[in-house]
Amino acid sequence: MIAVMAAGNRDPERFPDSDRLDLTRKDNLTLLGWAADYCFGAALARIEGQIALSTLACSLTKFEVGSGSVAWRFNLGLRGLNALPVTF
What we know:
Structural class: alpha+beta
């Protein structure tokens, strides 16, 4: 058995369009853990993410994914990007 963080909030039986990044997704307690293994840094991570994304949204008037390809890194435990071309 392998615990894969990249699967957090991506269960297609629980979330419609589970592969799409949806920052407003409700009932997403699985992303940072719950119960006995709840991450103590979860609240801080949520606040940091809200501050970073709201600052970015307010600072940039036109922000969109560029025409290049999105490159995912290969990592069994964590999902992440090697490259995400953006224009603003």
